[in-house]
Every structure is written in structure tokens, then in C-alpha cells.
Amino acid sequence: MVSIHTSVATPIDGEASVARELERELAREASVELTPRQVATVTDLSGRLPLGTRVYVPSIPGSTWQETVGACERLHGDGMVAVPHLDARSIANHAELASRLNGLVATRVSELMLIAGDRKRPAGIFRDTLDVLDSGALVEHGLTRVGIAGYPEGHPVVDPAALARSLSRKLEYADATGTEMWLVSQFSFDPRKVVPWLDAIRRTSELLPVRVGMAGPARLKTVLAFATRCGVRASARALARRPSALRLLNDWTPDSMLQALARHRVESPDSPLSGIHLFTFGGLPQTSRWLRATAGIGTADVVDFLNVKAHGER
Q1: What are the 10-residue block averages of pLDDT along the chain, 314 residues in total?
Q2: Are 52 and 307 in contact (CB under 8 A)?
Q3: Most buried among 99, 225, 300, 314, using CB within 10 Å?
């Protein structure tokens, strides 16, 4: 027998309910990051991720551009949307840039993540992402869906004023070329860093959507190692200050970050937050299980979001 409660929910109860639904929505529409090697070794991508999931493919030391293109081809064949990283500082010249873009277009890639890259010295003429944009090559190849990087905790070597100028130039480029542009942030563990940064992005541009980067489920030791390596020092220090027993025994999960972002969206409906982006430091199986549990998707279900996500917000 179903009992009927006649009491009226308080506004706080209503907000909590909306926030929980937003958590599920953000999990259902999350993008993930997989290296070319991860893509090559996963036997059942459609069993791990909803069809139409955007999978970002980073360039990592030891991998080749051909492996990146091959990963994109595999992802498309399995019903995903490949978003390869294009590392500006690793490209020698205009001919190499054109060759890379031709390879992507031949593999039906329609969007990419443009980053400067970690090289201290550029391999050639492209010092940063602005040099690639100014070359006109992306527009020439019909690549007018471009993700760019954001840094809620600051860039390890670029000062905030330079980051602001760079973002302004990129927005001008997007407006002049009709490019759809969005931000994907470096991962963070501290919503107190991310929420003010989202507010600052909104003040800069009301039209720039943001996918907030988060570390997927993993051992805390693994997460801390990646945080230190990637320059996310403030968040790493906050995690490291947790009691030693918790650090040793507990795994990291992004639940607290997701909950904070959902509350932020409820409190700030005009936030640029458009989604979350999972870095799979603990491996795809762990990330997949967390996403499915959070989204309320059964492990046996193959979920088809392709028509929704292929043409929706990034």
C-alpha cells in the first residue's frame, strides 16, 4: 500500500530534489578522457559508456598521431564522439598541421580540443593555440567546433592576465569565424576554487559553456600523484591534509565535487556550467561504474544518447 504524504515540501527540500536530479543529468551527459592505448584495449566501449558519449583523446608521451587518429576511428565505430587533442607546440609547420587535420577529417572528426601542450620548446612555428587559430587551418578544414582549456586554480606557468588576454582573443576568433567554442577545465578537487572561477567566466562571456574537469574514481595515492604532476597543487594540498587513515584506506570519488556543482547550478541558473569531464585516472571500468550508479543507469543497459549528444551542448 502506498502512503500519501500531505505535507508540503519546504523550498530547501525542493532545491535538494532539483540538485539531485541535476547530479544524475550531469553524470548521464559526462564526457571522459581516454588515451589512445586505453581506447585500443577496451573490448566493449558501448557497454562502458552511453552511445554518443564524447571521448577526448589526449596526446601523451610515447604515442603517435597515427594512434590518436586510430583511436578516433575506433570510437566512432563504437558509437562514441571522438574529440582528439591537438597539441599546438608539437606541430612543426603548416604542412604538418594540414596533414594532421586531413587525417582527422578523413576519420569523420568534427570537433577537437585545442591545447598548447607541455613541451617547454615548440617543435616548430606554433608557439601556442592562438598561432594555430590565426593560421586559418581549422576553418579551412571545416573544424569549427573547438574546445579550449581553462584553469580554475591558475596555470602552472602562465599568469592570470595573460590567460585572460588569450581567452579574449579566442572569443574574438570564435565570433569572427562562426566557431562553436567551449571550455574544458583542468581537474580540481575543491569547489571553492571552481565556483568563483565559473562566475568569472560568466562575467567574461555569457555564451561560453564550460565542462568542469574532475578526477574519476581512483586510489587517493594515484589521484595525488596526477594532481602533483599536472600542477593542481592547491587541491592536492587540501586532499593531503585529510587524516592519514582516510588517505590510506579510502578511494577518491568525485561525489562531493558533483554535489557542489549541482548546488551551484540550482543557486546560479545563469552559470556557464554545461557539463562535467572525467579524467579516468583509476581506469575506465571504475569511472564507468561510478557514472552509471550516479546516473541511475543499470550495468546491463546500453544507453543511446547519440542523437541528443551529437548535436547538443559540449
Answers
A1: 36 76 95 95 89 94 92 96 97 98 97 92 95 98 97 89 95 98 93 95 94 90 68 60 52 92 95 96 93 82 49 41
A2: yes
A3: 314
